[in-house]
Amino acid sequence: MPHPYSRALRAHTASDEGIRLQKVLAQAGFGSRRKCEQIITEGRVEVDGALVTELGSRVDPDKQQIRVDGSRIHISGRHVTLALNKPRKVLSAMDDPKGRYTLRDIIGDGYERVFHMGRLDYDSEGLILMTDDGELAQHVMHPKYEVEKTYIATVRGKLSGSICRRLVTQGVLLNDGLIKLDRCAIVDRSREHTMVKVVLHSGKNRIVRRIFDAVGFPVARLVRTQIGPIRLGEVKPGSYRVLSRAEIMALDKEVGL
Hints:
The protein is α+β, with helices and mostly antiparallel strands. It has helices at about 5-15, 20-25, 35-40, 105, 135-140, 160-170, 205-215, 245-255; strands at about 20, 45, 50, 60, 65-70, 70, 80-85, 115, 125-130, 150-155, 170-175, 175-180, 185-190, 195-200, 220-225, 230, 240. Helix 2 crosses helix 3 (about 35-40).
């Protein structure tokens, strides 16, 4: 028996406007048109939260949210998401009245609608995600979804394992509240520096630097290597790569899309 919402949705979408739903699914990589029709009739497709089980519905993928088996679909070429490796002395912005080097200088003019999801401070390096998908950006940056961020911090001095553990179990009180690391592990030590891998959810301004300043180990170098499931990988400083469909689906899942 068709789902009761499917009739109401069909009346709204089965006009001459929009694209046939099975064609949209095919463009998103779900197989042949016939296979996509089968996915619809099996009751696996939702449009704007309403189940669609009858063929002939037309949709606007730019304005409507389409899900298969609960996951948001992605049409090839409709949105782009980039993983960029920001060097030091690059501003986390698309332009700068002072003429400093920005993210736009790295990606060029090929992605006019792309904007950055979060920032790194001027002296920090590493992964910045950029997209023209407003819904994805909103979820990635919203504190509600607590996306993990991984950093390699090189701090001045010999940081002990006990301080690392304390930053995880007890945290440190900053002027804007108590903050804890999710994980902290010493990677390497020299006579003057300690390299530490840290993971935390907070996206507050200069949070990693402020945490280590508070315990007396100022950060000499900071590199963000991962945001949620997305790793920086082999992207060289000052370069970027386009995320794969599998990576975008993993990021969607991470932030509840």
